[in-house]
Amino acid sequence: MRRFTHVDAATIDEATRHLAEGDTRAIAGGSNIVPLMKLGIAKPGRLVNIKTIPGMDGINFSEREGLRIGALATIDALANDKTVKERYPLLSEAASSIASPQIRNVATLGGNLTQEPRCWYYRGPQPCWLKGGRMCYAAAGENEHHAILGTGTCNSIQPSDSAPALIALGATAKVASASGERTIPVEELFQKPIEGARRLSALKPRELITSIAIPPPRVGGIGTYTKKMNRHVWTFASVSIAAQLTVNKGTVKDARLVVGGVSSIPWRLGQSETALEGQPLDERTIEKAAEASTQGSRPLKHNGYKVPLTRAVVTETLTTLRIRATHNPV
Ligand SMILES: Cc1cc2nc3c(=O)[nH]c(=O)nc-3n(C[C@H](O)[C@H](O)[C@H](O)COP(=O)(O)OP(=O)(O)OC[C@H]3O[C@@H](n4cnc5c(N)ncnc54)[C@H](O)[C@@H]3O)c2cc1C
Ligand code: SF4
Questions:
Q1: 96: CATH
Q2: Within this chain, do residues 89 and 193 fall inside the same structural domain, yes or no?
Q3: What is the model's pLDDT at position 152?
Q4: Counted domains in the chain
Q5: Is the CB of residue 33 below 6 angstroms from any atom belonging to ligand 1?
Q6: 91 CA → ligand 2 middle, Å
């Protein structure tokens, strides 16, 4: 491991000033960056500890503004917050599905949204394309956990469970740097790695997420998170889906479906959303939405199972929401 120095930041300004000086990475819970430093993949000369910034871990709700979550809120706090459970069950379910209780206690929301890929070649000694090398070893190698949608130069999957949930809820992120603040949709925090920007995060290295905002719940809004894993608990999604619908008198007025585990970005199911909107939430509509969910997929040699799995997860999730809508009609 490269030798590094460590500094505690007392304010957001202080943290962004340190980041602007370069060769510096932020550390929050440390559950992602510390293992990467031990593996020699992240090699910062300095870590700036942002957990020492007071007031950046709050979870606050108002009927008018909706939910505001500080980037330092732990995944455990998010999973167990009473208001989040009642008003945004989709987010609470997604947070509860992350990792193990020990990790949820230290991991923060900001860190979850900016964590690096889990691809075993990325974490191994191979100089793969994402690490600056010439080829994607997963393309012709061990690719059972890799992408089926938007595949290309890098076939890793976006590992965050909070990201699909926040995108389905229409969340925005407040981002700070030494040159000021900006607010962007959470969807825009992610990018498909391309030449010139070999990263999954669209955040600039000197930027910090300071908070996340979610609009107030809509009348008739229902949402849920389904996650399928290769074992029962405490691992990353093989396929997951965050689904948020607005249903009025049995008809879908608005649909946001975001899939995890299938692409290097949280994958918005635009065609499935179109198949749902304006239609009765019945078996036939659900079937059409499920069918549309994998259009354009290009599985690799060992991950073809993700195509029927994605369709099955869409069907299961929309059926759950259909039952909920039937029991609580608006
Ligand atoms: C065994 C295991 C299982 C896991 N399972 C899951 C899972 O099922 N689902 C899932 O979603 N995740 C899973 N994770 C990942 C885990 O949730 C993340 O490691 C964690 O959320 C990262 O948060 P942190 O605060 O520890 O980040 P850190 O490790 O402190 O930081 C991670 C990265 O984010 C940057 N960063 C931190 N905070 C900010 C900020 N506010 N703004 C900008 N950049 C920031 C850091 O510089 C670093 O690059 C798992 C991890 C482990 C070890
Ligand atoms: S999928 Fe991405 S991270 Fe994995 S080997 Fe290929 S280029 Fe590297």
A1: 3.30.465.10
A2: yes
A3: 86
A4: 2
A5: yes
A6: 29
Residues with CB under 6 A from ligand 2: 117, 119, 121-122, 128-130, 136-138, 146, 154-156
Identify whether the C-beta of residue 123 lies closer than 8 Å to the C-beta of residue 42: no
Residue 33 placed within a domain: no
pLDDT score for 234: 86
Q: What is the CATH number of the domain that holds 246?
A: 3.30.390.50
**Number of Cβ atoms within 10 Å of the Cβ of 311:** 20
Answer yes or no: is the C-beta of 99 below 6 A from any ligand 1 atom: yes
Answer yes or no: is 22 within a domain: no
**pLDDT score recorded for residue 329:** 77
**SS3 for 181?**
strand
Ligand 1 pocket member 111 (CB < 6 A): yes
Over the chain (330 residues), the average pLDDT of each successive run of 10 is 96 98 97 96 97 98 98 98 98 98 98 96 95 96 97 95 98 97 98 93 95 97 97 92 97 98 98 98 98 97 98 98 89
Q: Looking at 168, 197, 214, which one is the last position of a domain? A: 214
For the chain, the straight-line distance linking the first and the last C-alpha, in angstroms and rounded, comes to 58
One domain, residues 251 and 271: yes
The boundaries of the domain holding residue 260 are 221-327
Would you state the pLDDT for residue 14?
98
Calculate helix-pair angle for 283-292, 306-327, nearest 10 degrees: 150
Tell me the ligand closest to 303's alpha carbon: 2
Instruction: List, for residues 241-276, the tens digit of each pLDDT value.
Output: 999 999 999 999 999 999 999 999 999 999 999 999
Residue 74 backbone zone (phi > 0: left; psi -120 to 50: alpha; other: beta): beta
Helices and strands of the chain, counted as H and E runs:
13, 12
